[in-house]
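Running co-folding for TZP.
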Amino acid sequence: MDKTKVNYGVYLVTDSTPAILGNKDLTSVVEAAVRGGATIVQYRDKHSDREAAVRTARALLAVTRRHGVPLLVNDRVDVAVEVGCEGVHIGQDDMAYEEARKLLGPDKIIGVTASSIQEALKACEAGADYLGLGTVYATQTKKDTKSIIGTAGIRSILQALSAAGHAAIPTVCIGGINSSNATAVLVESSAAPAKSLDGIAVVSALVAAEDPAAAARVLLTNVAMGRVPD
Ligand code: TZP
Ligand code: MG
């Protein structure tokens, strides 16, 4: 995989808790979402022990490889190394970027969460491959979110990235995004022509969907309508 050619358009973040996943099987949900058009998958699991996480990551990797989309692991760099997936996503309170890079090597994807201009610039300068910006809107999926920054907050980060010469770094945003607001989020966040988002990251809009394939197809269309061409 060439990490510079990744499509961040419809970025699926998993959640295995009953409130979101229900009694469905996570691997089947991911398979359906990817079939429908999800372009990248992040395995996010705050509860399983290491052994179970490795098992699930391997099962998800079999699915994502079959469909040619990247699989990243949230927080747990050791799990990503063990299963050999395409990379990780780390937050501000997780392993430091430099340490993750040492463990993963130059070819893997490392994405970093940023909620402020300062965090975004720091991650860029460290060498992050993409940024996850947010939280856009309050969400039931992650109740401990520190900063709800709205589309205006996303736009000011994009403007700052562009002004600092980082217009090329891919960005997605997360938090409360669904098929009703995805296009508007992309349009409102855009600091075009200087910089706009590359995609939207969602948990419940796909994982809790009755038909994840259909939901992914709709999101893909929403993103196509909202994306501002480079
Ligand atoms: N980080 C910030 S908000 C969030 C994460 C992982 C959860 C987003 O979930 P949803 O269901 O897409 O609002
Ligand atoms: Mg984290």
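Result summary
Strands lie at 10-13, 40-43, 71-74, 87-90, 109-114, 130-134, 171-174, 199-202.
The first helix runs from residue 18 to 21.
Job closed.
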